[in-house]
Every structure is written in structure tokens, then in C-alpha cells.
Specification:
419 residues; alpha/beta; four-stranded mixed sheet; 14 helices; 31% helix; binds ligand EPZ
């Protein structure tokens, strides 16, 4: 198993370019089932994307990934389509469940493995199935698989999600595209990644309107079979490197290929802590500041503070004077990084869903273990500021969602290597 070795450094500086968003690319790859010829640009070369491509190939689509250009071309010539998403692929990449909506919409049936849980929670899909049933799908669970069908096609419906779910919103959207009549989805997730999916579906010919948390979809008679799309930048990768800069970029670090307007809420919160952020049209310049203020934060659906930045923020708050609190309101078990950070000297206590962080504390390098994607990157941030050497095990978690992480950091003077 590969490891990362990080030597605590005194300073980061230079430029980092942000990659395409994994969480926008995954539903858009699932949506490509609905088209015939798709060209997608700014695809991040990360493990979850490769697994989703493997799933599309298994279903019967032809894919061509041009790695050096971050472009993928996908052809669905409708020959030998297998409406099955097998356990071996879905178990490692839960977003595989997103092909359910597309397969149902286009082929009126699907057999998709239940994704199962992961380190951060049980990750149920009841809200996905709730919406698909409302659209007229017959759903059965058998031997760990979701068996779904809609012999006469799906029928538009009024659906109000009992709670906000990114994946359920995406699956319902993908299914509703070909449902007869009109579908209204209420209490939807409205992350920028969902807006990117809506943009892609509109290029396909879908008639979609988003207002507040309500998405209305009219059946689209004609699907444009050939489209191209550029994936939005990864706002979580951006937030991660902004926090790294706040910790170590004494002279400022420029982060480009982004649109600061999309992460206004994250920027506002980081500014509230006292991070100096200069915004330009397609970049931000972030500087380390010594007057960071403690803060109490609760993770929320967009536009609230994202749960995917919770672990990274926690590392920053170990360096802030006073007691800060982070309440994790989205996932039931997303504090797996805390025991590892405590082994590096962090003073963090967990009370139910809240982490209480006492700062500033000096972190010292240690051998630690990654448990999930965002927890692992928080250990990288901790290693960058810790004294001596940190060894991070199980970095396959990192490779699921961060493109060229060590190269991007090395180019900013970090001492980091993979063995
Ligand atoms: C997406 O996961 C992201 N993954 C997650 O990012 C992100 O943390 C999450 O949204 C929240 O923003 C992708 O986009 C591929 P949810 P998703 O459905 O769709 C509960 C990362 O690090 N729920 O919004 O699975 C669920 O258990 C990953 O990139 C149900 O109860 O998240 C959770 O508590 C991690 N029933 C809450 O809703 C359901 O049917 C929010 O989950 C679905 C979800």
C-alpha cells in the first residue's frame, strides 16, 4: 500500500490550478447514458472517475479518456446495453447508484447494487428510491440489488424530498428528463455540482427550471444526441488549498482556474476566521495571517458550510487562539480524522455531533491512517504544519478525489513524497 511522507514546512508559496469537480463529473458521466455522443472537458483524473468510466463500459457505452487533455469522449450506440451496475463497481464508488435514474429513463429498467455504507456513514438511498417510485418506477430490493422498472415509462409527478440529498436530487433529475408530462422536485439540493448537471441536461435538450430549492422538469421530446460540456471547477479542492494557504502561505498563494462567486459562502466563513483572501476574476490569492479568530460552524447543505471541508477546517482551527466548535450535521460519523489529529497533538474533544477544538496547539509529525477522502486530506494539511515527519497510510482514499495532490503541493515548496 502506498504512503505519503510529509516533512513539516515553514512556508508555501506560488500557484495552484484547481481541477474539475469529481462531484460534478460523476452525475454528468451517469447522464451521458441518455445521449449518443458526448465530449466532456476538464475531467479530473481521480480514482472515482475511473471507476465510473469502468461502470459505463460495463453497461455497454464506448469511452475514450484522453488523459493529457482531461477530456473523455463517450459513445452510446445502443448496442448490447446491459442495464446492470454490479456490486464490485458500486461498492467502491457509491455514486455508481446515479446510473439508476438514467437507465430507468432511457431503458425503462435497471438492476443496480445497493451502494452500502462507507467510513462516514450508512449512506442509505431511501430518498433516491422514494423519488423514483413517485415517478412510477416499480422498485424491489433483492440480494443486495435495487431492481427497478417502468414498463410504460416514467410519469411526471410532484415530489417533495423529506430531507435534502445531493444524490437523490441528481437521480430524480436524471429519471425525470424522460418522464411523461411535468415533474416538480421540491426541497432539492442546489450544490454548484447540481447546477452543472442541469446545464449538461439542458444541452441534451432537457427543459429544466431551478427556482430556490424547486426544480421543474418538462418531458423533453427531443434529446440532442451529440453534445460537449466543460466540468465546473472543484470547490472542495479549492477550499482545501485555501486552508493550506491560510496555514502556511506567508507571502500569499495564488489559486486559479476558479470562479470565486460560486464559493462566496465558503469565502465569507474563511474571512470571518480572519483569513486574508483577495479575489480576482478567475483566481484567489490567500495569505497566512496570525490574527485568526475562533469560530463556531455547523455543516449544512449548500450554500451553508460544506461537510466536505469540515475535516480541513478543523486543522486550521487547531492553530486559532481559543475554543472553536464544528457541528457535523450532514453525516453521522464524519470525525474519523479526530483520533489521528489528536495523535499529532491536536486538542479536540467530541461531544455528540460537535467537535470542540482548543487552539493554538503545536502539531508534531506521526504515522497516521487515512479513513475517508476528506479525512485523509486533513492529515496532509496537519503534516504540512507539524514538526518533523508525518507518514500517512492508506492514501488510496486521497487518490479518489484529489488530482495530482503531491505535485501541486510540491510546486508550492511543500516537502511531500509518495512511497
Ligand atoms: C454527495 O454525497 C457528495 N458525493 C458527498 O461528497 C458530499 O459529502 C454529500 O453529497 C453532501 O454534500 C458526491 O457528490 C459523489 P447526500 P451524497 O445524499 O449524495 C442522507 C466527497 O467527499 N441520505 O446529500 O451521498 C445521508 O446519509 C463525498 O466528495 C439519506 O438519508 O450525500 C446524509 O446523512 C463524501 N437517504 C445526508 O442525507 C438518502 O437516500 C446527505 O447525503 C440519501 C442521503
Amino acid at each position: 500500500m502506498q504512503k505519503l511522507i510529509i516533512k513539516g514546512c515553514r512556508e508555501l508559496g506560488g500557484k495552484i490550478s484547481i481541477s474539475g469537480s469529481k462531484n460534478a463529473a460523476l452525475p454528468i458521466l451517469a447522464a451521458s447514458i441518455l445521449a449518443n455522443k458526448v465530449k466532456i472537458k476538464n475531467i479530473p483524473l481521480v480514482k472515482d472517475i475511473f471507476t465510473m468510466i469502468e461502470l459505463l463500459n460495463f453497461i455497454g457505452l464506448k469511452t475514450k479518456l484522453i488523459k493529457k487533455k482531461n477530456i473523455i469522449e463517450i459513445i452510446n450506440n445502443e448496442k448490447k446495453i446491459n442495464t446492470l451496475a454490479p456490486y464490485k463497481l458500486v461498492k467502491t464508488m457509491r455514486a455508481g447508484v446515479l446510473v439508476l435514474g438514467s437507465l430507468l429513463a432511457k431503458y425503462k429498467k435497471a438492476k443496480v447494487s445497493l451502494p452500502g455504507g462507507c467510513a462516514i456513514g450508512t449512506r442509505p438511498v431511501d430518498l433516491h428510491l422514494f423519488a423514483l417510485k413517485k415517478l412510477g418506477a416499480k422498485i424491489r430490493i433483492k440480494d443486495g440489488y435495487i431492481l427497478a422498472e417502468a414498463k410504460k415509462g416514467l410519469i411526471g409527478a410532484n415530489i417533495k424530498f423529506p430531507s435534502i440529498s445531493v444524490g437523490a436530487t441528481e437521480n430524480a433529475l436524471l429519471a425525470a428528463i424522460k418522464a411523461k408530462g411535468k415533474t416538480i422536485l421540491k426541497n432539492c439540493a442546489i450544490e454548484p455540482e447540481i447546477k452543472d448537471l442541469i446545464l449538461f441536461l439542458k444541452k441534451l435538450g432537457a427543459n429544466i427550471k431551478l427556482k430556490g430549492r424547486t426544480i421543474s422538469i418538462k418531458e423533453s421530446k427531443k434529446i440532442n444526441s451529440k453534445i460537449s460540456h466543460q466540468i465546473i471547477f472543484d470547490r472542495i479542492e479549492l477550499g482545501t488549498y485555501m486552508i493550506a494557504s491560510a496555514l502556511l502561505a506567508k507571502k500569499g498563494l495564488t489559486i486559479n482556474k476558479i470562479d470565486p462567486k460560486i464559493i462566496r459562502s465558503e469565502i465569507d466563513i474563511l474571512k470571518k476566521i480572519g483569513i486574508s483572501i483577495r479575489q480576482k476574476k478567475n483566481s484567489v490569492i490567500v495569505k497566512k495571517s496570525n490574527k485568526l479568530k475562533k469560530i463556531n460552524i455547523t455543516t449544512k447543505p449548500y450554500p451553508g458550510f460544506p461537510t466536505d471541508l469540515q475535516a480541513q477546517l478543523m486543522v486550521l482551527l487547531t492553530q486559532v487562539n481559543g475554543i472553536s466548535k464544528i457541528r457535523e450535521d450532514i453525516f453521522e460519523n464524519r470525525f474519523m480524522h479526530v483520533p489521528e489529529l489528536k495523535r499529532m497533538g491536536a486538542q479536540i474533544e467530541i461531544k455528540e455531533k460537535t467537535a470542540i477544538i482548543k487552539g493554538p496547539t503545536k502539531l508534531t509529525g506521526a504515522e497516521v491512517m487515512a479513513t475517508d477522502l476528506r479525512a485523509s486530506v486533513s492529515l496532509v494539511l496537519a503534516g504540512l504544519i507539524a514538526e518533523n515527519r508525518t507518514i500517512i497510510n492508506r492514501i488510496y482514499h486521497l487518490d479518489r478525489g484529489y488530482e495530482f495532490l503531491e505535485n501541486k503541493l510540491k510546486n508550492c515548496k511543500a516537502k511531500i513524497k509518495r512511497i
